[in-house]
Amino acid sequence: MIRLRLNKNKANEHDIHECAVSQIKFHNKVDYSRFYNRLRNPFVKAKELKLVARLKVFLKKNYEILEVGCGEGSNLYYLNNCHPDANFTGVDFSKEKISFMGRILSQMKGVVADATMLPFAAQTYDFTLMRDLLHHVNWARADVLREAVRVTKIGGHVVIIESQPDSILNKLFMLFFPEERGMKDSTIEKLRKLCSGYSYRIETCEKLYLVRACSFFLGWPKGIGRFLLYPVYGVVALVEDIIGKIRPSCRTNVIIIIDVQ
Based on the number of CB atoms within 10 Å of its own CB, is 122 exposed (0-12), middle (13-18) or buried (19 or more)? Predict the structure, then answer.
């Protein structure tokens, strides 16, 4: 997420303002349940580890790694487990989230900043991650991407993960959660246009979101409650696996790898 920064030359300034204020309000507070669900839910954890395994190819010892829109730091937590010798920095507009990350992940460096004006020199980082960020900053996608590329070293990589609007589950999320409606502009065509000035490739990241959607509503409770949810998650994971095999072309989100030159 980023702070509110408007381009006053735009005719739809009022709409941009309303969208930005909504995003800031929605993402300002620490989402404790989401953070601990990602770390403790074994079904979600399996997905996170699978994702990190894909990203591991870009990481090396002593790398400088940045996440823009880091939130509470769950992505950095998994990346750190994958490559503990790297140095990690997380940027978010929310002071509360950065403060939380500093307490929980004390080995990480947290910075409160605007993603359109990152407070780092050019070519500071070897690897920059933006996960599910762009559709929350629809009014400034190009600026955010430009800054991410600027602070990444030549020969390094900027990795973007974005949800796809044609997925049935994502359509439902957009319907019930206004803050997710920026996904409508995350089609493959629009993402290609956004990245057209860079050397990039787009790949499927995850085929389906059934397990993640289930965890969004059910979470991962403490105590005996989690044992009651094991069979529920197990069935959902099985259904997700079966659908993925029947429909190999389906994709809920994509990963965009930009080679910084």
Answer: exposed
User: DSSP per residue over 89-137, as a string?
Assistant: EEEES-HHHHHHHHHH-TTSEEEE--TTS-SS-TT-EEEEEEES-GGG-
CATH code assigned at 110: 3.40.50.150
Give how many domains the chain has, as a whole number: 1
pLDDT tens for each residue of 203-249: 999 999 999 999 999 999 988 889 999 999 999 999 999 999 998 88
Calpha distance 157→147 (Å, rounded): 13
Cα 116 vs. chain centroid, distance in angstroms? 16
**Residue 8: inside a domain:** no
CA 48 to chain centroid, in Å, comes to 12
Q: Where are the alpha helices (DSSP H) in the chain?
A: 13-27, 32-40, 42-55, 74-82, 95-104, 141-150, 168-176, 188-194, 210-218, 225-246
Residue 5 resides in a domain: no
Q: What is the pTM of this model?
A: 0.91
Kindly give, in sequence order, each residue whose CB lies less than 8 Å from that of residue 76, ignoring residues fewer than 6 positions away: 65, 67, 70, 88, 90, 101, 105, 108
Q: Which of 104, 254, 98 shows the shortest CA–CA distance to 187?
A: 254
